[in-house]
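Quick start: read one record
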Amino acid sequence: RGLSARQVIEATKQEERQEEFQTWLDATKENLQVGDVGSKLTPSQKEDYHRLIFAFKDVIAENPKKPRLLKGIVHRILLDESKDCTPWQEYVRRCSPAEEEVKAKEILEMLKNDIIEHCNSEWANNLVVVKKADGTPRVCVDFRRLNEVSRIDPFPLARIDDAFEAMGKSKIFTALDCAAAFWSCPLAEEDKDKTA
C-alpha cells in the first residue's frame, strides 16, 4: 500500500520540500483552481489540495492532449500464436468530409504532442470518428481485428463495496479525471508497428 493523503501532504512540509513547494505555488497559483465556485473549503483545506497537486505534479498533465507518461509501466500487445497473426492492411473506409477534417486535425495534434509518430508498418488499422457523450467527435483506431488475435490479459477490478468502505466517514471527496489516460501508458517498442 502507498502513503495516505495525509502522509503525502506532511512530506511536502518537510524543510527540503517547503521552499520548492512555495516556489511552485507562487508560479502556478494564478492558474490553479481548487474547489468549485462557492465551495466552502477552508484555507487549510485548500492548502492541503495545493500540496497534493504539488506532490503529484510529475503525473498531472498541464495540456490534456499531451499527458505525461507513467513511469515503470510499458504496455505489450502479445499475439495469440494459435490464431492467424499475419499483418493486415485494412482498406480506408469512406467517411464524410467533416469526419476527414476531424481526423486530419487530430493526427496533426497527436504528431505535435508526440503521441504518435510516422512509421512504415506492415499493419494498417482504420481510423474512425465516434461521438462522445457530449456530442463532440473522438478519433479512434479500430483495433477490433487486433483484439481478436491478441492474448487475453484479464485484470480484476476492485470490489465496489471495498471502495465504499475505504471512504469511511469522509466528508470531502475529490474526483480526478485522467487526461487522455490511454496515451499515458507507453507502448513497448516492439509492439508499436501493430498499432499503425
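The two ends are 37 Å apart (CA to CA).
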